[in-house]
Specification:
This protein is of the alpha+beta class. 19% of the residues lie in helices and 44% in strands. Strand 9 and strand 10 form a beta hairpin.
Length: 160
């Protein structure tokens, strides 16, 4: 395997607060609660020469934009089989694992994933950041980490 270098950005400013309820395979779920999540990114690169240098500014802008979009919302997993959307206009009424909820629509983000867990959020964040960034050919992999508390989270790595 050829030598690789790793560039990472994991700063306290890349955080977002949100509420969620993780659903379990047996059809139960957590109570509604929130976290102060931190988002980090790492890029594996094959070339660190001057010509292949990757400016951090675009990466930082993408991280900040995703955190700003996600902060202070209730996250729902739109692909969860236990989620039923009852009404979706100015009010979002839904059932999750048999329990009924109603929220102002602007307070809720329905994400295209099947569960709100750090694992699923890391995959979704990696997909979003990959779409937001124009990465040079020297980037061979992208890894995103989502921590729900210091030292507790998940990472997702995708080869490019």
């Amino acid at each position: 395997m050829p030598p690789r270098s790793r560039i990472s950005i994991a700063r306290e400013q890349y955080k977002f607060s949100c509420a969620h309820m993780t659903v379990f395979p047996d059809g139960t779920k957590e109570r509604l609660h929130g976290h102060n999540y931190m988002l980090a990114i790492a890029l594996e690169v094959s070339d660190v020469s001057l010509e292949a240098m990757i400016p951090f500014s675009a990466i930082k802008t993408a991280l900040a934009a995703l955190c700003a979009e996600w902060k202070e919302h209730l996250f729902l997993a739109g692909k969860n089989p236990r989620l039923e959307i009852v009404r979706d206009d100015t009010q979002l009424e839904f059932r999750l694992c048999g329990e009924a909820y109603a929220m102002p629509r602007g307070d809720v983000l329905v994400l295209p994933i099947d569960n709100i867990s750090v694992e699923a959020l890391a995959v979704h964040a990696a997909d979003r950041l990959r779409a937001m960034l124009t990465l040079p050919a020297s980037v061979t992999a992208l890894e995103v980490t989502v921590e729900e508390s210091p030292g507790q989270g998940a990472s997702y790595r995708v080869a490019l």
